[in-house]
Specification:
- The complex is a heterodimer of chains A (112) and B (362).
- By secondary structure, chain A is α+β, with helices and mostly antiparallel strands.
- Chain A is built from 5 helices and 3 strands; from the N terminus they run H-H-E-H-H-E-E-H.
- In chain A, strand 2 and strand 3 form a beta hairpin.
- In chain A, helix 2 packs across helix 5.
- The two termini of chain A are 30 Å apart.
- By secondary structure, chain B is mainly α.
- Chain B has 12 helices and 2 strands; from the N terminus they run H-H-H-H-E-E-H-H-H-H-H-H-H-H.
- Chain B has a two-stranded antiparallel sheet with strand order 1-2.
- In chain B, helix 8 packs antiparallel against helix 9 and helix 11 packs antiparallel against helix 12.
- The longest helix of chain B is centred in the last third of the chain and has 47 residues.
- The two termini of chain B are 21 Å apart.
- At the A-B interface, helix 3, helix 4 and strand 3 of A face helix 2, helix 3 and helix 4 of B.
Amino acid sequence: MDRFDSELMKGTGATLILALLAENELHGYALIQELRRRSSDRFRMNEGALYPLLHRLEREGWLASRTRQQGARSRHCYRLTQAGRKALDERRSEWRAYAEFVEDVLEGSEKT
Amino acid sequence: MKRLVEQIDRLLRRIPPDSHYGRQVRNELLGHLEESVAEKVTETNDLDEALDRATAAIGEAGDLERVYYRDYLASRYWLGFFDREWLLRREMLGLRVGAFAMILGLCFGALLPGLTAFVRFRTAVGQVAASTESGASQFWLSALRDVSGGTTLFSWLDGGLGFRLLVVLGLLAFALAGSSLYRSLFDSERRIQGRALWLAPIAAAVLVFTWRAEDYAIALSTMVQSSPTSQDFDLAAGRLAWSIAATAVLALILGAWAVVLTRRARRDDVSAEPRPLLTALVLLGAGGFLASHPLLWSTLQRARAAVSGEPMPPPAVLASSIHLDFVLFVMGGAAVIFALYVLMRQLLEVERVYQSRRHGEV
């Protein structure tokens, strides 16, 4: 199956990360894997862009991080903060309104 | 593992691995590469290829280092001024000692003697200002003679052993600062000429401000001695005028210096440097000019006029002038100390960036 158009994905990375971290505390690589799994490998976040994005979200106070020992390995894991949860709610509402608008336009174009 | 670390160092060569932020990102990327290589090894059955592919994947954005470096600077500086990791860099002990000694030198060799002399003079002016009768010049001279008897809190410093002791302590601190800075910045592997560019304005500023404090003390001592003559005032005013002129020239030189260093920093893509560097140099110039007492010079001229029998302004005007001069002196001194601190931090940062880049190139 083809991957999503990168133009289509622009701007959604932060929202998706916030949403995934609302469910679980995850490290960077696990976030990438989880996005791939849920999109059936159609959504692949650029690894070089992920970590700067995570750091930016942490700097804005939406994420908190800590180093966890997982077996012999230590992993830097992220979780959502209260401010991040609020930001996610706002983005979720905004996304739904936007998706509804896009859907309306697309449906309209089908009828003509 | 060693190759993973080397790859990360290559990706993040501008971020010092011993900084808090550097350790955090390196740990994070190391964890990422471990996972990524493990996955790719199962696909390729070749460790070298897996490592290359994993590194290429994380670095393919191209601007990873630039973004991290920007974040690193953001995490390190507060409003572009304060270096949060200043206390964490053990390897720069010499530089810290140098900076501390230089501030001590400023306090002992310049600010404290100047402040002491000022307090003594201020007392005299206060006594004059308390009288509102005519014949102010008589009260003025009378009050000066009273004070010159040594009744003020700081009189022990006035031109005596205490004052000289402070100046000597200040000069010793400057010597220690110079020695520490030299050892920190110019070891055998580094080019002296390029780095000396950074030390020169600091040394010039220190010299001028030390000289300034001495002139200040001389000017005030002249005004509080028991029988000042016109020649005494001329001598003190002359030195003070030269001192103010020298400080103004220094401010101009520092301004030009700021332009040169800013261009150089931009050319070398040391993107963090221009703002705090410009701030420091402007503060140094402006602070130096404020601390050089242009108002004191005019007050000195008025006092000379009083001694010569010319019309003299009311004592309250003199007192307010001196008060304003004191405020300028304190503001200027604080600006100079702060500017030197920022310059120290900038020295350290620029040196580190150049060094890490050089190591990266190797």
